[in-house]
Specification:
Largest sheet: 2 strands, antiparallel
Shape: rod-shaped
Number of helices: 2
Oligomer: single chain
Keywords: Coiled coil
């Protein structure tokens, strides 16, 4: 008959289904008390983790939110600076065009004022003035200024994306996961069947084709 795992002197007749240890009646009771204490300590650790994990998640969220806010502010600032520069260029071009247009009009007016008092003009002069005016009208109606967006491969505004790294979550059959749920391993044996693995996010639903690489293959006869 097996002896008690604690006192090693009495006949053990009670078996713990968890640790598979054999205990006498008295020490089985103390063994259960120790196990209960361990469970209570684990509950305390679990509650502590719940609090600390909440704080850690809040801090991480705040940090990434600040990063996104800074990116937004920087991007808006760059857009505003570019828009301001474009408006200044547009204003300069239109002022220059307006000055040239007024200058050309004044030249025609001066020619008229010089020739009109003495009737020193005829149909040929009038035709020349009309031709000059038509050219000015054409310039005004079709200015050499255009505003359009220009696509640049390397834009000065970098695209920002929020990614969540996917990990394996559920398994079924002769397969297990390890290395922080990023590595799936098949439990090889002579009678091994197919295994099923599900992801926590992206691969949870639908059908996906994934390339696999077998790095090690241990075959035991």
């Amino acid at each position: 008959m097996e002896t008690c795992a604690t006192c090693n002197s009495r006949a053990g007749n009670l078996k713990c289904p968890g640790c598979q240890g054999i205990f006498c009646r008295d020490h089985m009771s103390s063994h259960r008390n120790e196990l209960t204490q361990q469970v209570e300590e684990f509950e305390s650790e679990l509650k502590k983790f719940q609090k600390t994990s909440g704080v850690a998640n809040a801090d991480l969220k705040s940090s990434w939110t600040s990063y996104i806010d800074a990116w937004e502010t920087k991007s808006i600032q760059k857009i505003q600076e570019t828009a301001k520069e474009a408006r200044q260029q547009l204003e300069t071009m239109f002022v220059t065009n307006e000055e040239e247009n007024i200058g050309n009009i004044h030249k025609i007016e001066e020619q008229i004022h010089q020739n009109k008092p003495d009737d020193n003009f005829d149909e040929r002069d009038l035709a020349i003035w009309k031709e000059k005016l038509d050219k000015l009208k054409e310039i005004i109606s079709k200015p050499n200024i255009s505003v359009k967006e220009q696509k640049i491969e390397s834009s000065f505004i970098n695209e920002i994306r929020v990614n969540e790294r996917d990990v394996f979550d559920q398994t079924c059959g002769d397969v297990h996961i390890k290395e922080e749920n990023q590595l799936a391993c098949h439990n090889f044996n002579l009678f091994a069947s197919h295994g099923e693995i599900r992801g926590k996010r992206e691969y949870s639903n639908g059908i996906h084709r994934i390339r696999l690489k077998i790095e090690t293959l241990d075959i035991h006869p």
